[in-house]
Amino acid sequence: MTIIFSKPLADSKDYPHPIIKGMTDFKWGNLLFKKTAYTSDSSFFSVNGRTGLAIIGQHLKLKTKDTVLLPSYNCLGLVEPFVWLGVNIRFYKLNKDLSVDIEDFKNQLDDTVKVCVFVHFFGFLPDFSKLSPLLKTYKKIVIIEDCAHSFYSPNTDNSQNMGDYSVVSCNKFLPTHEGSIVYGSTANNMNHTALHSSLLSDFKILLNALPLVPKSINMIRTLLSTFKKQAHQTIENQQSVPKDDSLSFRYFNPRETHTNYSHINKLIVEHSNHKKIKQKRRDNFKFLLQNLSNIKTGVPLFSVLPDNTIPYVFPFVLNNIQSFDKIRNKGLALFRWEELAENDTSSDCSVSQFYRDHLVQIPCHQDLNQTDLDQIIIIIKQCAIEKP
What we know:
Blueprint: E1 43-46, H1 49-59, E2 67-71, H2 76-85, E3 88-92, H3 102-108, E4 113-119, H4 131-135, E5 142-147, E6 165-169, E7 180-184, H5 199-208, H6 213-231, H7 263-271, H8 274-291, E8 298-300, E9 313-318, H9 322-329, H10 350-358, E10 359-363, H11 370-382
Parallel strand pairs: 2-3, 2-4, 4-5, 5-6
Antiparallel strand pairs: 1-7, 6-7, 8-9, 9-10
Helix pairs in contact: 1-2
């Protein structure tokens, strides 16, 4: 199935290297001697979340006539594995709080639907109370919970999850270069395709753990970026032709379905101080919520942090999209989902289209100290622009 995606609104290369980063750094001193088991007989590690989704799809033996339902607001990495699988993809609409538009979802259901994917947006558990009765009438539908933003979901062991499978992303919460865990009753039968370990990822982690190496790499990247801009000022609108299937996707790489997880990544997952990480993320989120709730720049997407919710980021809705450039230029890392499907019902979802421009993800990870948090507040408030 061919899907046309909207072009990115911004490029990180056009902004200075962030002084407040969006991800955590690896430090040997943060590891604990005690081991925490995060896998069982009903789970396995994969290279990343999108690879895990592809492996699930292969295991289910999805066919071209089968339909997969995805949320209209999404990351491109969620869609590409199903494009690669060759299935029919439909997008269901969302409400302003990113809950499922039940009426639209109901209209999407038919006998061709084999898989429904529900996303734990930014670490917040979806409300399945209205979905469960609806899906019971379609007993053959497989439910996948995308927990890429919800590594610490209380139900990641799948014992109480609504879904048949859950996929979590390690590197969004921990200083791993990659890594995902797939949970499900038949997950132990799916990881038969892995051929070799990701030694390159192990090397990158070890390299970044050395003093001054990350800063040196960032300096080199900045210089290379500047050189490329100068060298290609007169070359516009040229697109490279993919040499093979793996390069035809922006994020998903089919070869990774045959690649095993990094051993160092697994070590980090099993020996991190998870209790400390969870508390720090919640504390940081609450601080941002308290200080960003009544300002001119925008509004928090969620006004409450539920018990047991460990946030991935602090989602914030900008009043004016021009604030995005101002914030990035001041050195604060921001994420934004900008590449949405243009040729399907997702383009009719006004919420998804609005959030593509206005919904940004502010860091709240465990590496942020009080100085960082104070600086985030200052930057966000300084970048207020009136609504157009």
